[in-house]
Amino acid sequence: MSLLEVEDLTVAYGPIAAVRGVGLSVAAGEIVAVLGANGAGKSTTLQAITGLLPARRGRVAFDGQPVSGRPAEQIVRLGMTLVPEGRRVFAAMTVEENLRIGGAIRRGRADAARTRDEMLALFPILAARRHQAAGTLSGGEQQMLAIARALMSQPKLLLLDEPSLGLAPQVVEAIFDLLVELRRRGLTLLVVEQNVHMALEIADRAYVIAHGEVAMSGTARDLLASDEIERAYLGHA
Ligand SMILES: Nc1ncnc2c1ncn2[C@@H]1O[C@H](COP(=O)(O)OP(=O)(O)O)[C@@H](O)[C@H]1O
Ligand SMILES: [Mg+2]
């Protein structure tokens, strides 16, 4: 059974439907990539799945329960947490305060301080900077913090919106290694990426979104082998 099942999802900004009839599923333990050019509707899709935007039509089920129309906070408690595009850490707050905020909405009853210590162990760079304002961190460190903050809610499914955007190649590599490590630890991942090749290297399956619709989907291996994908859908030369 799928951990996440999305059917016929339609999301509009005023009269304009940015996402039209999108269907996708994620099985427990998978890494699924969502690819597509700028403006294709990827962020809108993730925000509607996590209850941050209302859907005009469609169904979202998580862990066997319908979650369409539920408030975002409840969806986090059920075990689905989004790392938003652009990281959005609280710049004036310390690393530790950012983590505390991430732990404020929790699924499990486990002690927040223990999860924080797990995060500081997983991200030594954050441990070293725990009393520093988040705004003083590098872009890569802020992305690590955004991921750690999301993990504080103890999700089963982590959704990431362009985690590698704007980061240096070496840092991108570290972020992708981290995603693989998180999956190894049992997390399920739905990742929006413009870094197509790297995403397909770590993903099991992928969906390509074009103009608000699923234009292509398949195993990462098949999509990697297809030369049509970049030319047709991703807006690259
Ligand atoms: N807040 C908004 N108001 C109106 N239109 C929006 C808004 N956010 C995004 N859009 C439009 O919806 C479409 C999909 O955007 P988005 O989901 O952000 O794409 P992606 O994440 O794939 O780059 C784009 O045409 C974009 O201009
Ligand atoms: Mg986006």
Features:
alpha/beta, binds adenosine-5'-diphosphate, 237 residues, 2 domains, four-stranded antiparallel beta sheet, 10 helices, binds magnesium ion, Rossmann fold, six-stranded mixed beta sheet
Overview of this protein structure:
- This protein is an alpha/beta fold and 237 residues long.
- The chain contains ten helices and ten strands.
- The protein folds into two domains: 1-79 and 156-237, P-loop containing nucleotide triphosphate hydrolases (Rossmann fold), CATH 3.40.50.300; 88-154, no CATH class.
- The strands form two sheets. The protein has a six-stranded mixed sheet with strand order 6-7-8-3-9-10, with helices on both faces. The chain has a four-stranded antiparallel sheet with strand order 2-1-4-5, covered by helices on one side.
- Helix 3 (95-104) packs across helix 4.
- The protein is globular and about 45 Å long.
- The chain binds adenosine-5'-diphosphate and magnesium ion.
